[in-house]
Amino acid sequence: MSKVLSRIGRRRALQGAAAGAVVLGLLLWWLLPLGEDPPSGDITFSTGTTSGVYYEYGSRLRTELAEDMPHLDVDLTTSNGSQENVARVAKGQADFTIAAADAVATYEVQHPGSAARLRGVARLYDDYVQLVVARDSDVRSVADLKGKTVATGLPRSGVRLIANRVLKAAGLAPGKDLTAVSEGIDTGPERLRQGKIDAFFWSGGVPTAGLRELADSFTFRFVPIDAELVAKMHEQDDATSYYRATNMPESAYPTIQNGSTVPTIAVSNLLMTRTDMDPRLTEWLTRTVIKSRDGIGAHVHSAQLVDLRTAIYTDPLPLHEGARRYYRSVKP
Hints:
The protein has 332 residues and is α/β, with parallel strands linked by helices. Helices cover 41% and strands 20% of the residues. Strands 1, 2, 3, 4, 5, 6, 7, 8, 9 and 10 form a 10-stranded mixed β-sheet that branches.
């Protein structure tokens, strides 16, 4: 009887090992296709300013891509932000980029011809609008910016697009009711610390390196942007439908927020490309984006929010065929 049990035990062990090998094989296939040479060539990836999340995410994604596709050369270029990024990809000046959904929708309205070439790869994470003032400032609401000097973001940036809409919803016109200056996250924090501006707008994933660094040397606070103001923004044009009222989490900047959330606006960020991008390369790149979430997220907090279940929702852009192939391949 013991020999029979021994044979049964060995059989079960072999079956278990075989099942484990199958599971491991499936897992490896999900992470990286077996028996397939990685795509090669050259691509240009447009990011953002060096102190922003787009640049940091793009830099770390390039490292991950180098591991999966060692013969793919990824050229990272800086930019002023979302509006410039969308235009670059549409015009063929960049192959991939990250841009906020409102900037994509705005470009589609303004340039319907070239916008038809744009395609989504993945929904990544949300940007939060951050209106920053000195701790002792008398600005308590957006309306209080009247008569102040305010940095509204760089030209062709996503920040500029949102800041102008926020100000309009509050009944303020740049150049008339306040002095608007072109400062982004690279220079705005230092200008505020020096007292050269009264406030600055920023829209990005949290925490953003430029604000984290400012918190180490200067005490500031965030001005709330309430849901009523967001509702007024929705009346401006169709692109504003991508804004939603939310709260910036208390963990974004702990030393500044002291456990409090901040009412504000969120808008999703999209990884995007064009219709003429090689489907096979795009499929591999999409796989790397999903696979590298935890690795990149250990350094870029926003990347932790990349999720396979929501990545396919790239509205207002249809999915690129290569990205669609990947999502179909991992569909339960």
